[in-house]
Amino acid sequence: MPRILGVDPGITRLGVGVVDNPHGSSLSMIAVDVLRTPPEWDITERLLHLQRGVAQLLDLHKPDVLALERVFAQHNVRTVMGTAQVSGIVIALAAERGIPVSHRTPSEVKAAVTGYGGAKKAQVQTMVKNILSLDEIPKPADAADALALAITEAWRGRVPGVQGRGASASPVSSTQTPAQRAWREALGQRTNLG
């Protein structure tokens, strides 16, 4: 049963979400959390705290793959630097344990989870809740984002034992996530009605 750890990197809040992806069945959430560091801490203290927290999670949950949000340019260089530093720690910890790391862009995650790459954050959070059959949307947003990364990896990634689930599907539909297929089917039904 492939296990995926999604990580939404950040120096103040680092979201983590673990999902299991049993072959041929729906995803299930195993854990979700947000590791936090106070802004008044020195950068070395903050990075060490996050390193220890991520290491504990990797050793506890033993994921088959880690899905990490790709660092992208923002207007705030300080935020980008902190995110990049945290990402480097996460990648090193995974490599140390032989866990492959997959990098996902925010638009790629939105497209996988909602069927639309320009979806709003609230739409992604609602879909995470629905996909994982949760009673409520995980809070704060970093927690839902981490689960969305894990879902994306489950549906689009190279998780061991998952490939080939859509073997009978057409080449186009086998590269689409369930959310994208549902969206295209709904669009097709509306077109046929017109």
UniProtKB/TrEMBL annotation:
Pfam families registered for this protein in UniProt: RuvC
GO biological process: DNA recombination; DNA repair
Co-factor(s): Mg(2+)
Location(s), subcellular: Cytoplasm
GO CC annotation, single: Holliday junction resolvase complex
GO function term, MF aspect, one: DNA binding
The protein's enzyme class: hydrolase
Active site: 8, 69, 142
Residue sites binding Mg(2+) 2 per the record: 69
Catalytic activity field: Endonucleolytic cleavage at a junction such as a reciprocal single-stranded crossover between two homologous DNA duplexes (Holliday junction)
Feature: compositional bias, Polar residues: 170-179
Record keywords: Cytoplasm, DNA damage, DNA recombination, DNA repair, DNA-binding, Endonuclease, Hydrolase, Magnesium, Metal-binding, Nuclease
Region (Disordered) location: 162-182
Keyword Cytoplasm: yes
Chief place where the protein resides: cytoplasm
Listed EC numbers: 3.1.21.10
Family: Belongs to the RuvC family.
PANTHER family given in the database record: CROSSOVER JUNCTION ENDODEOXYRIBONUCLEASE RUVC
Subunit structure: Homodimer which binds Holliday junction (HJ) DNA. The HJ becomes 2-fold symmetrical on binding to RuvC with unstacked arms; it has a different conformation from HJ DNA in complex with RuvA. In the full resolvosome a probable DNA-RuvA(4)-RuvB(12)-RuvC(2) complex forms which resolves the HJ.
NCBIfam families: ruvC
Entry function: The RuvA-RuvB-RuvC complex processes Holliday junction (HJ) DNA during genetic recombination and DNA repair. Endonuclease that resolves HJ intermediates. Cleaves cruciform DNA by making single-stranded nicks across the HJ at symmetrical positions within the homologous arms, yielding a 5'-phosphate and a 3'-hydroxyl group; requires a central core of homology in the junction. The consensus cleavage sequence is 5'-(A/T)TT(C/G)-3'. Cleavage occurs on the 3'-side of the TT dinucleotide at the point of strand exchange.
The name this protein goes by in its record: Crossover junction endodeoxyribonuclease RuvC
Species: Pontimonas salivibrio
